[in-house]
Each structure stands twice: as C-alpha cells, then as structure tokens.
Amino acid sequence: MADIAQRTVRMEPPRRPERMIELDTMGAVGDAARPLSLVERLLAITLVRRLIVLVVLFGAWQAYATYLDNNLLFPTLTETLEALYDAVVHGPLIERTLTSLQILLTGYVCGLALAGIFTTLAVSTRIGTDLLSTLTAMFNPLPAIALLPLALLWFGLGAKSLVFVIIHSVLWAVALNTHSGFTSVSPTLRMAGQNCGLRGVSYVAFLLVPAAFPSILTGLKIGWAFAWRTLIAAELVFGVSSRSGGLGWFIFENRNQLEIPSVFAGLLTVIMIGLLVESVIFRSIENITIRRWGMQS
Hints:
Layout: H1 2-11, H2 38-43, H3 46-68, H4 77-89, H5 93-124, H6 126-139, H7 148-155, H8 159-183, H9 187-195, H10 200-211, H11 213-242, H12 247-256, H13 260-291
Helix pairs in contact: 4-13, 5-6, 5-8, 5-11, 5-12, 6-8, 7-8, 8-11, 11-12, 11-13, 12-13
C-alpha cells in the first residue's frame, strides 16, 4: 500500500505557484463584487443613454448648420428653438398641435377598434381569417394619402376626411401584427384555454391577447407612427384647401412664407411628441405588461 501511495504521489503534476489560491483570498477571485463607478451606473439608465444620443444629434445639427451658414436651407438649432419659443408663446403652435392630436387620437382609436373586430373574427372563424387576409393584402400596400381625394369627395372639407385616412393607415398595420401574434400562440396554450371553457371574445381577451401582447404592442407603435405620417401629409393638402388645420398646415404655411426656422420648429414638435409617446406611454405599457410577465428582459 505504501508503494502504491508513493507512485500516486509521483504521478501528480507539479504545483504551479501562480495557480495556487489560498482560502483567505477566494473572495477576490474574479473581482465579481467590484462596485460600479458613477459613469457605469449612469450608463446603465436607459434615459441617460438616450439623452446622450440626443445631445450628440443636436450637436451635429448645430455644427452642420453653422458650417452651412444658410438658414433658408438649414437653420441652426438655436434659431429653431427661438422660432419654437416664439410660435408657442406668440404664435398658433399650441392650438395647431391640439387640433392635430385631437384628430389623430380619434382616427387612432377608431382604427384600433376596427382592428380588434377584424382580428377577433379572424381567430374565431375560418371565414374571418380569409376575410382579414384578403383585405390586408388588398389595402395594406395602398398609401393612405392616396385615399385623401376620395375622402374629400365623400366627407367634404373637415376632420372626417382626415379621420378616414388615419383609420386606413392604422387599421391594417395593427390588424396584421395582432393576427400574427395570435397565430404564434402555442397550440398547447390554446387547448388549455379551451379546456377551461374560454370561447369567442373571452378566448381572445383572456388568452390570446396576453400571450400575443408583444406583437400587439409592436402593431400599436407602428400604427401610431403611420397615423402621424398620414396626418401631417394629409394636413398639407387639407390645409391648402381649407386654410386651416394642424401641424401640417403650420409647416406648409411657414414654408410658403420662407420662415424655414418655423418649419423646423413644426417638425421638431412632431419629433418631441413622438419621443414623449414612445418614452412615456408605450414604455410604461411595456413595463407594466411585457417586462412584468417575463416576456422581455
């Protein structure tokens, strides 16, 4: 036995001092508990990172406009902010913005309601699926602004024409993403819900909607962006016809008067509203639902 033990000891590899770890220093291995620096803690905040991106973009804007030195082509950020302040305090920008938001929300809500009806029919019946697929293939590629002449003919000069084209731009994008999310729900989860007695509207509301909510939220974001694009483009035409309107008419009117900083102020207003809706409303919905349910890290 002693001979075997000696041979076993001889067969062990030599001990390397740099690989030897004492028990009292085990806590320092890998430095896993190193405290984060102030910069690292700040960069871990999403809002701080986005503010850094905005500062870089605004700095590039100011530098390029200063280099170009022609405010008829590209005004500086400071000139745009001055025009924005003047339009808010002394001009009609707030009134025009509220007008656009009122029309936008009306069309957006109506588009969401119709999308919900179409997708509910599509997941409930085979005829509904064929109907949604056919209508989506027909109307989704059709630009909403192309329907504006018909909308003006049918509904006249008024908010109804703008609401109509906004509904068209929102409906198919939201319905397509929602139906895609519904079809991606696993068959096991579907059968479990049906075994629990879920049918029709309750089956959609309590099983499919929570399971497919990431796709639904994506559709809501796309529909919101499409609605903004359609509204501004439609107001450019609608404002020319009725000499009234919202942000689109504000932009068009200042362009005719060669008030280019005010034009950029109108565009900046649209951008700020988009950032606000994305960062506050949609982000809050995402935190309350998707992140809390563990669907997204």
